[in-house]
Amino acid sequence: MITLFQFPAAFNVPNASPYCLKLETWLRLAGLEYQVKVVSDPRKAPKGKLPYVRIEGEAIGDSEIVIRTLGERYGVTLDAGLDARGKGWARAITRLCDEHLYYLMLYFRWFDEDSWRVLKPVFFGSLPFGVRDAVAWAMRRKVRATLRAQGLGVHGRDELLAFARDDLDALDGLLGQVPYYGGEHPCSADAAAYGILANLIEATLDTPLSHVARGYPRLVAYCERMRERVWSE
C-alpha cells in the first residue's frame, strides 16, 4: 500500500499545495491504491518537503521523483498515448507549472497583504498563541529568501503579474479546444496543470494572481472538467 504524506486540505481545494494536489491527482489518474496521512510539518520528510510517499518501508520525496518511481515500479504511465512531440510538450507544461507559475503563486499568497491576512490564520492558526507570530514571520522570511534565490523575488508586483499572464496565455493556448493537455484523455501534464490552476482558480484564497487566472474561461472550464473527472466524490 502506498501511503501519501501531505498537507491538510484548505481553501476549498483538495490540497492548498500544488505539489500535493499534483501527486494525488496523478495517483488517481493512474488508478493506484493509496492512503493519505495528513501532516503539517515537513521537516522530517525526505528532502524536507511535502508531499512524499512511503512504500514497503521506503520513503520517497519530491513529486516528480515519486511519480517516476511509482510509474517504473507499477508499470504505469499517463503518457503512453503521446508521441515524442506530445511527451515533450507534457514535460514543458509540467516545468512551467512546477518551476515558474508555482513561485508566482507563492509570491502573491505570501506577500500580497490582503492575501496574507487570510493565509496566516489558516496555515499557522493551530500553533500555540505564544509562538504563532514568530513562526509565521520566520516562514515568511524563508519564502522571501527562496523567491530571491529562484530569481523571481527581485522583481516588482506588476512585473510578476506580467510573467504570470504570459504563463497563463501559454497554458490557455496549449489547451486550445481539447479537453485535456493529453488530448482526449489526461496525461502527466494534467496532474501538474490542475495542481496549480485549481489553486489559482478554484481556491477561495483570493490573490491578484487568482483574479487574473479566473479571467481565462477555457482554464476555468478545464478545472471544472478535471475536478469532475478526478475529484467528483
Automatic annotation (TrEMBL):
<dbReference type="Pfam" id="PF17171">
    <property type="entry name" value="GST_C_6"/>
</dbReference>
<dbReference type="InterPro" id="IPR036249">
    <property type="entry name" value="Thioredoxin-like_sf"/>
</dbReference>
<dbReference type="Pfam" id="PF17172">
    <property type="entry name" value="GST_N_4"/>
</dbReference>
<feature type="domain" description="Thioredoxin-like fold">
    <location>
        <begin position="18"/>
        <end position="114"/>
    </location>
</feature>
<dbReference type="InterPro" id="IPR036282">
    <property type="entry name" value="Glutathione-S-Trfase_C_sf"/>
</dbReference>
<protein>
    <recommendedName>
        <fullName>Glutathione S-transferase family protein</fullName>
    </recommendedName>
</protein>
<dbReference type="InterPro" id="IPR026928">
    <property type="entry name" value="FAX/IsoI-like"/>
</dbReference>
<feature type="domain" description="Metaxin glutathione S-transferase">
    <location>
        <begin position="164"/>
        <end position="226"/>
    </location>
</feature>
<dbReference type="InterPro" id="IPR040079">
    <property type="entry name" value="Glutathione_S-Trfase"/>
</dbReference>
<dbReference type="InterPro" id="IPR033468">
    <property type="entry name" value="Metaxin_GST"/>
</dbReference>
<dbReference type="InterPro" id="IPR012336">
    <property type="entry name" value="Thioredoxin-like_fold"/>
</dbReference>
<dbReference type="InterPro" id="IPR050931">
    <property type="entry name" value="Mito_Protein_Transport_Metaxin"/>
</dbReference>
<dbReference type="GO" id="GO:0005737">
    <property type="term" value="C:cytoplasm"/>
</dbReference>
